[in-house]
């Protein structure tokens, strides 16, 4: 079983749409969770950390469900510039080794 | 904003040659990583480095790979005898203490011919 699993997509949505990505992780020892954004042939860039209480940053909302080992990312009012691959990351405590999912591709069209 | 710097941005090498990829992590970070990403595939962990030693490595990080932090600022990845399948984007990352995320460099694209 893959450690971090994501639906690869692509998700093809119009501008202004709301889109949700899901991610599951298999290692119950994981303690830190993040969403990264990766543009084509660029490095991953931190979008937001994910906390148990849920957190919001502008149009982006991240949720963590430890019992189900499930992480989500909600993007509201999608912009063309949101087109990218979104990477789910889980990290074990102590070693702090981040494990990446394969990524979910988002295409926002006019 | 502090950043992780990687050089070169692109390196072409012949099969069997040694390459050294260089990284300058963020100055007050303590945890350092190398990752690779083969075109179209996921970001894969290679090795982590903390307190001047390897803390964990993956199956990919075999005897042909090594890492060094020679002078307290640079963090290098050496591939001793490159193979065609080593062609990939190699990312260096660093992290400080606390709950912050990992900062990645812009990567070195390695092409083995």
What does this structure look like?
The complex is a heterodimer of chains A (110) and B (113). Chain A is mainly β and 110 residues long. Chain A is built from no helices and eleven strands. Chain A is globular. The mean pLDDT of chain A is 92. Chain B is mostly beta strands. Chain B is built from no helices and eleven strands. Chain B starts with a strand and ends with a strand. Chain A binds chain B through residues 32, 34, 36, 38, 41-46, 49, 87, 89, 95-103, and chain B through 31, 33, 35, 41-45, 48, 55-56, 89, 91, 93, 95, 99-107, 109.
Radius of gyration of chain A: 13 Å
So what's the oligomer here?
heterodimer
How large a portion of the residues of chain A is in β-strands, by DSSP E? over 45%
Query: Which class do the helix and strand fractions of chain A yield?
Result: mainly beta
The assigned structural class of chain B equals mainly beta
**Spans of chain A of 5+ residues with little confidence (pLDDT < 50)?**
none
Care to count the β-strands of chain A? 11
Shape call of chain A: globular
Helix content of chain B: under 10%
Distance between the termini of chain B: 36 Å
The count of DSSP E runs of length 2 or more, i.e. the number of strands of chain B, is: 11
How much helix, percentage-wise, in residues of chain A?
under 10%
Low-confidence stretches of chain B: none
Short account of what is shown:
The complex is a heterodimer of chains A (110) and B (113). Chain A is mainly beta.
Secondary-structure topology with pairs:
The complex is a heterodimer of chains A (110) and B (113).
Chain A: E1 4-6, E2 11-14, E3 19-25, E4 30-38, E5 45-50, E6 55-57, E7 60-65, E8 70-75, E9 84-92, E10 98-100, E11 104-109
Parallel strand pairs in A: 2-11
Antiparallel strand pairs in A: 1-3, 3-8, 4-5, 4-9, 6-7, 7-8, 9-10, 9-11
Chain B: E1 5-7, E2 10-13, E3 19-24, E4 31-37, E5 43-50, E6 53-57, E7 65-68, E8 75-79, E9 88-95, E10 103-104, E11 108-112
Parallel strand pairs in B: 2-11
Antiparallel strand pairs in B: 1-3, 3-8, 4-5, 4-9, 5-6, 7-8, 9-10, 9-11
């Amino acid at each position: 079983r893959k450690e971090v699993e994501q639906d690869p997509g692509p998700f093809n949505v119009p501008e202004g749409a709301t889109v949700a990505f899901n991610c599951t992780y298999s290692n119950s020892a994981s303690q830190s969770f993040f969403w990264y954004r990766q543009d084509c042939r660029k490095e991953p860039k931190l979008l937001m950390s994910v906390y148990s209480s849920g957190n919001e940053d502008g149009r982006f909302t991240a949720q963590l469900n430890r019992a189900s080992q499930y992480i989500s990312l909600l993007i509201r009012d999608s912009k063309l510039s949101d087109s990218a691959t979104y990477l789910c990351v889980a990290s074990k405590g102590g070693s702090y080794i981040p494990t990446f999912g394969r990524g979910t591709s988002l295409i926002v069209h006019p | 904003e502090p950043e992780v710097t990687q050089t070169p941005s692109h390196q072409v090498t012949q099969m069997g040659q040694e390459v050294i990829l260089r990284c300058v992590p963020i100055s007050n970070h303590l945890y350092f990583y190398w990752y690779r990403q083969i075109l179209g595939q996921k970001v894969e962990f290679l090795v982590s480095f903390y307190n001047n030693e390897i803390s964990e490595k993956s199956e990919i990080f075999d005897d042909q790979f090594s890492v060094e932090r020679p002078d307290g600022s640079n963090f290098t990845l050496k591939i001793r005898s490159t193979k065609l399948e080593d062609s990939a984007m190699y990312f260096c990352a660093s992290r400080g203490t606390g709950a912050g995320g990992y900062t990645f460099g812009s990567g070195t694209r390695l092409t083995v011919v």
